[in-house]
Amino acid sequence: MNDNRQMTMKDIARELGVSVATVSRALSDSPSISRKRRQEIQQFAREHNYFPNVIAEQLRHSRRNPSRAIGVIVPELVHYYFSSILDGIESEASSRGYHLIVAKSNESYEREVQICEEMLKNKVCGIIVSQAKDTERYDHFERLEAAGVPLVFYDRICPALNASRVVVDDYMGTMNAVSHLIDTGCKRIAFFGTTMSMIIGKNRFNGYRDALYKHGLTLDESLVRICDNRADAERITPAMMRMETPPDAFFAVNDDTAIGILSVVKRLGYTVPDEVSICGFTNGFRATVCDPMLTTVEQRGTEVGKEAADILIGLVEGTLPAVHAEKRIVKTRLVIRGTTRHP
Amino acid sequence: MNDNRQMTMKDIARELGVSVATVSRALSDSPSISRKRRQEIQQFAREHNYFPNVIAEQLRHSRRNPSRAIGVIVPELVHYYFSSILDGIESEASSRGYHLIVAKSNESYEREVQICEEMLKNKVCGIIVSQAKDTERYDHFERLEAAGVPLVFYDRICPALNASRVVVDDYMGTMNAVSHLIDTGCKRIAFFGTTMSMIIGKNRFNGYRDALYKHGLTLDESLVRICDNRADAERITPAMMRMETPPDAFFAVNDDTAIGILSVVKRLGYTVPDEVSICGFTNGFRATVCDPMLTTVEQRGTEVGKEAADILIGLVEGTLPAVHAEKRIVKTRLVIRGTTRHP
DNA sequence: ACCGATTACGCAAACGATTGCATTTATTTA
DNA sequence: TAAATAAATGCAATCGTTTGCGTAATCGGT
Fold it and tell me: Taking burial as the number of CB atoms within 10 A of a residue's CB, which of A91, A98, B34, B97 is the most buried?
């Protein structure tokens, strides 16, 4: 049995023969308590290492002050981009006096709902979330808003809700990357992306298409595939390279896919980047490990996380109006390495 | 201004003309309230989506029940191994009804102390921690123990404290890996490790040394270096390959270092694994990206995290005696890929 | 030495929920 | 029908802090 008994103000008051109110005031350095008493009480507290009970404090203030706990929902944790975002959220939050309650949805709608309930119970002051892949109903999010808990989305945005959000500039990121491929002499550029039902999928595709148009190239549907992981890439790429006129470049929606392409292309005997150029999207751990190193669009997860936390805290503290949904776009940066030619 | 006013039992009581006590009992389905009233109250609560205030609940029960928040301190977040561990902790904790408060120490002692204070204030029921690299005083940890908050270490263990811990089997992991190198014909095996002041550094070195001895090889000090990152590896490896009799294999303390070695060795024109074999430690994202893919010791971070959470929850719930420090060792697994020959 | 103004402190009611005990009301028994 | 028993509800204290308001103590001024 833990004798978990912590020292309380009541104990101090009893020991020193004063009232609890006096102790409270003395500890908060209120001038309405004489300097002598204040110091006496403060010293006693220090010596007996008194620790204020945050639970009680919070209860007392629940009407006015929100808690300083931010709920963060992540689809997965072992994931470069999500880790970076979490890192950014942590940095921003902790430097502004907030702490994080982190939960992983495992890409499951059920779990996401459950987490929202839990967090509501635990009185987070707001929630930062990237939806699970199989989330298609949004009542759990709406319930949060109804309960007055502000919501900020990142990466995977809820299209049906006009909530605050921060995303990466998928359109321009892709546009720049594809333009770079074209500038370095590529003419037939394949696009491996996600389904158009995901916003990021659509935006990246549009960037690809518009880059082609801008440079007077035409879009060849047979070069566009839904493929967002390495295994699929390794399955799909060989067929594509057997086309009568195979692509001379690939743009992939993430580094993992790009690396799948790279490994196949190398195995088939093509030289990278001279015969085939490849560009990814993320700039994670993998990008500098493959040979040659991957040219890729840096997704700047840390920035995304910081912006998300900044919005949420603004919402909580009232510096940002709760009515208007704040939408921020983090600029990407093209990192040119060995899988593309230099301009 | 948020009218953050949530519905309380008092509201329900007033609306329905009963006492708060009745509402409380009805909501907890106590048989001492008539079935009719119970249902009436429960329905009213549901319709007005009443939500119990956990803060108040906790305050009331603070004497008996610990909170269900587990504090997790991580040196960094954008890190494969730590992410995996966090993932394991999350899975175990959430499945047992606990949630996580996560903070990053950034490898700073100051910050670590600060986080401990914060977590103590926020009434976590226990803390799972891997020390910051520059932590050399342990009074903040001792203060936690004194406050009755159980502590579990993972990965970077505090040597001065006899606290519960879970680590990976560094000794056997390295021993097996080096044995594998020897079995596949390597005779001069270099060791790139961390300083011996870190426990994991020492254990891995011992595994290396004993594997050599067991197979009748002698330890050549000139093949042992302190090097635990890619940049250093790329600096150190060329010199080593210029020795009169250069190594025919490298064991590196992590994948990152191993990949640094690999890139240098390939650049110098050696074939891997035939002329030079390489083995890492982690089995993270990078391991399957390099060419050839990396043979490495799988560190099983998820397991480590699960075990850590299991210990902590045991300590909190009293299934594990608080007096005895529980020490668990997670077995590693050698993953043989392309940077070593097959047996 | 007395009065008004400070100064220093205590009382008690919150915050929202729980729970032992007392009390009311309904039901059974003699 | 009265008394005894059982069922249903209310009262009030409690968890640890905070804070408006009241009051006792101290002080300066005349």
Answer: A98
* Of the candidate ranges A226-235, A236-245, B152-161, the one whose mean pLDDT is the lowest: B152-161
CA atoms of B224 and B258, how far apart (whole Å): 14
Average pLDDT, whole number, for chain A? 94
Residues 249-268 of chain B with CB under 8 A from chain A are 259, 263, 266
What does the pLDDT read at residue B318? Answer: 87
**CA distance to partner chain A, nearest, from residue B214 (Å):** 34
Give the distance from CA B82 to its chain's centroid. Answer: 5
Distance in Å from C5's C1' to A13's CA comes to 29
State the DSSP string of A83-152: HHHHHHHHHHHHHTT-EEEEEE-TT-HHHHHHHHHHHHHTT-SEEEE---TT----HHHHHHHHTT--EE
Determine, for residues A104 and B118 on separate chains, whether the beta-carbon distance falls below 8 Å.
no
* Residue A230 tokens, joined: 């390495």
Give the distance from residue B124's alpha carbon to the nearest chain A alpha carbon, in angstroms: 11
Tell me if A208 sits within 8 A of A174, measured CB to CB.
Answer: yes
Laid out side by side, the sheet with B249-252 consists of: B224-226, B189-193, B249-252, B277-282, B295-298, B333-335
Find the mean pLDDT for residues A163-185: 97
Q: Is the separation of the CB atoms in B80 and B295 below 8 Å?
A: no
Q: Is B239 exposed, middle or buried (0-12, 13-18, 19+ CB in 10 A)?
A: exposed
Structure tokens at B289: 């990206």
Largest CA distance in chain B: 94
pTM assigned to the model: 0.91
* CB proximity A95–strand C (7 Å threshold): no
Establish if A53 touches chain B: CB-CB under 8 angstroms: yes
Q: Is the pLDDT of residue B1 over 50?
A: no
In contact, B68 and A62? CB cutoff 8 Å: no
Strand C contact residues in chain B (140-179), C-beta within 7 Å: none
Per-residue pLDDT tens for A60-69? 988 777 889 9
Which strands make up the sheet holding B327-330, listed edge to edge?
Answer: A327-330, A164-168, A151-154, A126-129, A69-74, A99-104, B99-104, B69-74, B126-129, B151-154, B164-168, B327-330
Q: Check if the beta carbon of residue A168 is closer than 8 Å to that of residue A332.
A: yes
Substitution target in B3, B6, B78 with the highest count of A β-carbons within 10 Å is B78
The encoded tokens of residue B227 equal 């090097």
- Exposed e or buried b for every residue in B278-295, given b needs 16+ CB within 10 A? bbbbbbbbbbbbbbbbbb
Within 8 A of A3 by CB-CB distance, chain B residues are 148
Nearest Cβ partner for B59 among A56, A121, A147: A56
